[in-house]
């Protein structure tokens, strides 16, 4: 792996891993407050476009990071609806 | 601007703009809860590496997006310490 790619992969691991604590917290507390579904949809669109951009550039770090981010966005959206106040 | 770059810029605007609501909310409510300083430092490191990666690739969308993200991370860290419970 090129040094450049290694930097991209490390960057991706750091930024992607920062999504995990909030997900675990929401799972434990069975609530997703402080963030609107709209925000997750904006993030989903952004990460989706970044993934497409990564595919155009054939750039593994960008594709891998944003695939993981998309999974986290969808998971948070599911929790948001599952734990919404009825 | 190449179509590819336009996609990257749009992706960047979407993901970067998703940071703004939380910042405004923290400013209004004068508190930054649910996120640890450690998380912002991880994000700062990740965005810093992404920016370095963008510089290596000479990739404007990656550089621009992560510069904005770094500013937001630092701003949130400042709010986190300013509004911490004494």
How would you describe what is shown here?
With 86 residues, chain A is mostly helical. Chain A has a single domain, classed as Up-down Bundle (Monooxygenase). In chain A, 80% of the residues lie in helices and 0% in strands. Chain A is built from 4 helices and no strands. Chain A has helices at 3-17, 20-29, 37-57, 60-82. In chain A, helix 1 runs parallel beside helix 4, helix 2 runs parallel beside helix 4 (60-82) and helix 3 (37-57) packs antiparallel against helix 4 (60-82). The mean pLDDT of chain A is 90. The A-B interface holds A 4, 7-8, 10-18, 21-22, 25, 33-36, 39, 42-43, 45-50, 52-53, 56-57, 59, 61-62 and B 4, 7-8, 10-18, 21-22, 25, 33-36, 39, 42-43, 45-50, 52-53, 56-57, 59, 61-62. Chains A, B: One of its GO terms (cellular component) is membrane. Chains A, B: Keywords: Membrane, Transmembrane, Transmembrane helix. Chains A, B: It comes from Hufsiella ginkgonis. Chains A, B: InterPro entries: SemiSWEET, SWEET_rpt. Chains A, B: The chain crosses the membrane at residues 6-24, 36-54, 60-79.
């Amino acid at each position: 792996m090129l040094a450049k790619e290694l930097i991209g992969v490390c960057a991706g691991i750091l930024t992607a891993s920062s999504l995990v604590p909030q997900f675990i917290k929401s799972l434990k507390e069975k609530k997703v407050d402080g963030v609107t579904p709209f925000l997750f949809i904006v993030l989903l669109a952004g990460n989706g476009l970044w993934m497409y951009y990564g595919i155009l550039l054939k750039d593994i770090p960008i594709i891998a990071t944003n695939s993981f981010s998309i999974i986290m966005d969808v998971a948070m959206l599911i929790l948001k609806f599952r734990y919404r106040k009825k």
